[in-house]
Specification:
The protein is of the alpha/beta class. It is built from 14 helices and eight strands. It folds into two domains: 233 residues, Alpha-Beta Barrel (TIM Barrel), CATH 3.20.20; 47 residues, no CATH class. 47% of the residues lie in helices and 12% in strands. The protein is globular and about 65 Å long.
Length: 294
């Protein structure tokens, strides 16, 4: 089987758009892999929520936290992993280090965004409103490309320019990012919806990644082909459902609720053993464990 970065490039080469599983920790990544998703996406914000219980709106996490999380995800998930690396850790030099370490941790694609994280709550109207200069971001993307040890790793230029800047300036940025050596563009939102896609495609030849594309657009094969739309990121519904379920279960138990009332809402034993790969471990035990077990 090809390694994950090679598999991801094969997916990008298709004349089609692929959904990416919205994962946030090793458990969700394992389940996505087990249920047949071809690509997984680790969101910067939901990765912080799930693994550190910190908000995304101020800088309370660092690149080392992300690299550690990627190591743990790739230990249990063979599907190619797209990693949202936020601003890459700071300037162009820290971006280079972040890229190299995420590569070693198994990332198939690495997003570098053109925003700064606000230093404190209330310093920006929106989380992504503080835009870097075009010149600085191009330098960061060029550093990310140069830092790769494996040419298979895809550097993704993530931009909020369409939402934060005048349209002409945003399109100029998109064209500049396309010349940086990055091999895909990611848009966390399209202010004009699907109507933005042809305008974007007119200033770049790179494949596009989009968050939250409506289902009817996702099924429009002609538009997907014309705009080179390749990856669709989905809302983080699994994380939100997990938080709701955990909160409800613990609240029920804290209030003295009976255990029997939660029986049908729990994963059955067979599913748990499939997720934790009990059968696989038993096969390895049978093949390689020579000493007698107690």
């Amino acid at each position: 089987m090809p390694v994950a970065p090679d598999r991801f490039r094969a997916i990008l080469a298709r004349d089609a758009c692929t959904n990416a599983a919205p994962i946030f920790d090793p458990l969700s990544a394992r389940i996505a892999d087990m249920t047949g998703w071809e690509v997984c996406k680790l969101s910067g914000s939901f990765g912080k929520f799930a693994n550190l219980a910190v908000p995304d709106g101020v800088p309370l996490a660092n690149a080392s936290d992300l690299v550690d999380l990627c190591w743990r995800i790739k230990r249990v998930c063979d599907a190619p992993l797209i990693v949202d690396a936020d601003d890459g850790g700071g300037n162009a030099l820290t971006v280079a280090r972040t890229v190299r370490e995420l590569e070693m941790a198994g990332a198939a694609a690495i997003e570098i965004e053109d925003n700064l994280v606000p230093a404190a709550f209330g310093r920006a109207e929106r989380r992504h409103a503080l835009m870097l200069s075009e010149e600085e971001q191009v330098g960061k993307l060029e550093a990310a490309v140069a830092a790769r040890h494996r040419p298979e790793t895809v550097i993704v230029a993530r931009t909020s320019a369409l939402s934060e800047l005048p349209r002409s300036e945003a399109l100029r940025r998109i064209a500049a990012y396309s010349r940086s050596g990055a091999e895909a563009l990611m848009f966390p939102e399209l202010p004009g919806g699907a109507a933005d896609l042809p305008e974007i495609a007119a200033v770049t030849t790179l494949p596009l990644f989009v968050l939250g594309l409506p289902s009817d657009t996702f099924r429009d094969r002609a538009l997907i082909a014309a705009s080179r739309l390749r990856i669709r990121f989905l809302p983080h519904i699994p994380y939100r459902m997990a938080v709701q379920a955990i909160t409800a279960a613990l609240d029920h138990l804290a209030q003295g609720g009976d255990l029997e009332g939660l029986g049908e809402r729990q994963a059955p034993e067979g599913l748990l053993r499939k997720v934790d790969r009990t059968a696989e471990t038993e096969r390895w035990q049978g093949r390689f464990l020579r000493s007698p077990t107690p």
